[in-house]
Write a structure and sequence with these properties.
The protein is mostly beta strands. The chain is 0% helix and 66% strand. It is built from no helices and 17 strands. Strand 8 and strand 9 form a beta hairpin. The two termini are 37 Å apart.
């Protein structure tokens, strides 16, 4: 459990946005710069049937002021953050064969950000917006130890699904329903293959890697800037293939005197 709090009211030199005019320079205090944050992390482990189970959850909240520019500070704008990360991991050594390991992982991330600037002290006009992001991830890692050939093969498969929606609460101040932005979503798939080759009594390690990524995005609506429609696709799909090579050489190794 972690807790942090600060007033953030340090003093600083303010030239009032006019560096060439020395008559309006002064030393002032930073306003609306405090924050308060909480973080709680819980974790449990269990060994069942040769499988190592790990379950963890991390919760983080933060309420902070948004002070704005040094020469034009905000007194009321605030940003609230809530994030929750839940993770379940299963791994087993020597499965399904004595020379292989397997590991699986499931994760869920919730992220909420609420920015309120009802007096329009930052940016253009008043704002009261909440952004909601949810991410679901699953992956599996298969490792094969080929000791007679001094090699270790690894295969990773991972998929994730992410959603985003922005909600504008400003109309509620005028007795209207909140305005919801388009429902946006993204699917991400990764397939990676790595081989580690050890040579010269394990002093030299060569690691070729081939990684493929598929990213499919649906932005839910045509991209706009105000009332101007932008020349950007609503749906996109990217295929990325990224080969890599790595090498490590151990120059010397000190004996263990313990």
């Amino acid at each position: 459990f972690n807790y942090a709090e600060t007033l953030g009211n340090f003093t600083f030199f303010d030239d009032n946005g006019t560096p060439l005019n020395l008559l309006d320079d002064e030393t002032v205090k930073r306003r609306n710069n405090g924050f308060r944050s909480f973080n709680l992390n819980t974790k449990g482990e269990a060994l069942l049937g040769g499988w190592q189970f790990t379950l963890s959850n991390d919760v983080y909240t933060k309420d902070q002021g948004v002070p704005g520019q040094g020469s034009n500070q905000s007194d009321n704008a605030r940003l609230q953050t809530w994030r929750d990360v839940a993770l379940l991991r299963l791994e087993k050594k020597g499965a399904p064969w004595p020379t292989t390991d397997v590991a699986f992982q499931l994760a869920y991330t919730l992220n909420r950000e609420h920015f309120a600037d009802l007096k329009g002290e930052i940016g253009i006009g008043a704002q009261d917006v909440r952004n909601n992001t949810d991410t679901y991830t699953a992956n599996g890692l298969f490792t094969w130890y080929l000791e007679p050939w001094k090699q270790t093969l690894g295969v990773l498969l991972e998929g994730s699904y992410e959603t985003f929606r922005s909600v504008d609460f400003l109309p509620e101040l005028r007795g209207q329903a909140a305005r919801r932005g388009p429902f946006q979503q993204r699917t991400h798939f990764i397939a990676a293959f790595q081989d580690e080759i050890r040579l010269f009594q394990d002093k030299l390690s060569l690691r070729p890697l081939l990684r493929y990524q598929l990213v499919a995005s649906d932005f839910g609506a045509d991209a706009t800037f105000g009332v101007i429609r932008l020349n950007t696709a609503r749906d996109t799909q990217e295929h990325l293939c990224n080969p890599r090579r790595g090498a490590k050489y151990t120059l010397t190794c000190w004996p263990d005197l313990t």
